[in-house]
Design goal:
- By secondary structure, the chain is mainly α.
- α6 packs across α10 and α8 packs antiparallel against α10.
- It is 72% helix and 0% strand.
- The chain is built from 11 helices and no strands.
- The protein starts with a helix and ends with a helix.
- It folds into 2 domains: 222 residues, Glycerol uptake facilitator protein (Up-down Bundle), CATH 1.20.1080; 32 residues, no CATH class.
Length: 258
């Protein structure tokens, strides 16, 4: 089990690497395009996982940490150390990118700091409704993939590549909608430099990735051999719903066999 100090250090360093690699590429590399930015986020995730994975598991995202706690793969007592490290790392990473970018004449963090948002902040002009759906659905996918790689049959190399790959893939799909959030601290890292309007919209990129985290955990439970009763999501309502779904599936199978 990772010590609290190692968790804090690992998440701080890893999240800073993710922000510097992903956001840094978007802000500092003019003309690199959607594919380049998405690949940068994926590669940054892989690099960070290799560097700090042994220390903290390289969550680098509060939505991932929440899912790991719900699945009982991370102790609830360690949650504050994960979150503090992620916020610190994101702030350090954002500050580093801002420090470099602000050295160019005419740079404005308000207009050029890759903040997440809708309407005028959306590259494609999408509204808040589309952004909320994106933040829930695509974060759920991210979380489900991460939880699936925790299976004992998945090698560490395959786990790192899978998570890096899904991060790149999800950014390819979402960059034109809201600049690719899916991670509350990634959004915080840019909003704190992006001005009042960016901060006003930040709540969406904190709340709905966490909703997606819960849904992603349920999706993982649907395909994994783990049981609902072994997670923090176990409650009478969900257990009854699961049992009803199992009985309905058995009835359909029996009907087909007959």
């Amino acid at each position: 089990m990772e010590s609290n100090a190692r968790v804090l250090a690992g998440e701080t360093i890893g999240t800073a690497l993710l922000i510097i690699g992903g956001v840094g590429t978007a802000v500092l590399s003019a003309g690199i395009g959607t594919i380049g930015i998405a690949l940068a986020f994926g590669l940054a995730m892989i690099v960070a996982a290799v560097v700090v994975g042994h220390a903290s598991g390289a969550h680098l995202n509060p939505a991932v940490t929440l899912a790991m706690v719900l699945a009982r793969k991370t102790k609830p007592a360690q949650l504050p150390f994960y979150l503090l490290g992620q916020v610190l790392g994101a702030t350090i990473g954002g500050l580093a990118v801002w420090g470099i970018a602000s050295g160019v004449d005419g740079f404005s963090a308000k207009n050029n700091f890759f903040t997440n948002g809708w309407d005028r902040f959306s590259p494609g002009g999408y509204g808040i409704g589309a952004v909320i759906v994106v933040e829930i659905v695509f974060t759920a996918i991210w979380v489900a993939v991460v939880l699936s790689t925790e299976h004992q049959g998945v090698s560490p190399t395959a786990s790192v590549v899978s998570v890096g790959g899904v991060v790149a893939l999800l950014h390819l799909a979402t960059l034109s909608i809201d600049n690719g959030g899916l991670n509350p601290v990634r959004s915080i890292a840019t909003a704190i430099f992006g001005g009042t309007d960016a901060l006003t919209q930040l709540w969406v990129f904190i709340v709905f990735p966490l909703v997606g985290s819960v849904i992603g955990t349920l999706v993982w439970l649907a395909v994994d051999d783990a049981r609902l009763e072994g997670t923090m999501l176990a409650n009478p309502t969900l257990v009854r719903a699961r049992d009803l779904a199992d009985r309905a599936a058995d009835s359909v199978i029996d009907a087909i066999d007959d």
